[in-house]
Amino acid sequence: MCVVRTNNTPLKILKTISNYITMADLTYTVIKNEDQYYEYCEILEELVFGDEVEEREDEIELLTLLIRTWDDEHRLAKEMDPVELIKSLKQDHELSQNDLAEIAGVGKSYISEILNYKKRMSKNVIRNLASHFKIQQSALNQEYRLEGEGQEEAEEKPQTSRIFNIETGNLVSYDEPYDERKKM
């Protein structure tokens, strides 16, 4: 027996749902491959940005659940650089940098600095972009290297270990031939 709740009122169904619906009758199934994943993403995008959002709310929720499950299992979003993800969304939705700044709730210069790896995204920017594009905040809340970051270490002189001769206590030079080091 299956129990379905509508408006918190349980309705008892005498036969199981499987007697009425077969897998072939279902519009959506568990995502099994990338083609199906991208197909569902396109459908979801059409539904979310369409005119019948309220009437198709259950369908949107189901597709969102199926897509999130696939994302969690395959970690597609976690592999992508958050800035590259924003650039991709900007291009896919044919948005200008001004549009993106408005969606993020910041100025054009701040968005420019984010897109050019000069500043990190604030929590509000992440929240606003994720909400608008219907993606998980975690896809944007990942580490990425800012312009110039890490170059200081590369420019510094490489550190070397100092080696001392045990017998004499003198510093051993790498420029000296091996035989001469033995004599010290």
Task: Please provide a written account of the structure.
This protein starts with a strand and ends with a helix. The protein has 184 residues and is mainly α. Helix 1 packs antiparallel against helix 2 and helix 5 crosses helix 6. It is built from ten helices and two strands, in the order ββαααααααααα. Helices cover 49% and strands 5% of the residues. It folds into two domains: 2-74, no CATH class; 80-146, 434 Repressor (Amino-terminal Domain) (Orthogonal Bundle), CATH 1.10.260.40. The model is unreliable at 1-18 (pLDDT under 50). A two-stranded antiparallel ribbon has the order 1-2. It is elongated and about 85 Å long. The chain has helices at residues 34-48, 57-74, 76-79, 82-92, 97-104, 108-115, 123-133, 137-140, 151-155, 178-183, and strands spanning 2-6, 9-13.
Over all CA atoms, what is the radius of gyration?
29 Å
Q: Which spans have pLDDT < 50 for at least 5 consecutive residues?
A: 1-18
Q: Which structural class do you get from the secondary structure elements?
A: mainly alpha
The N- to C-terminal Cα distance equals 90 Å
Count the beta strands: 2
Fraction in helix: 40-55%
Domains counted in the coordinates: how many? 2
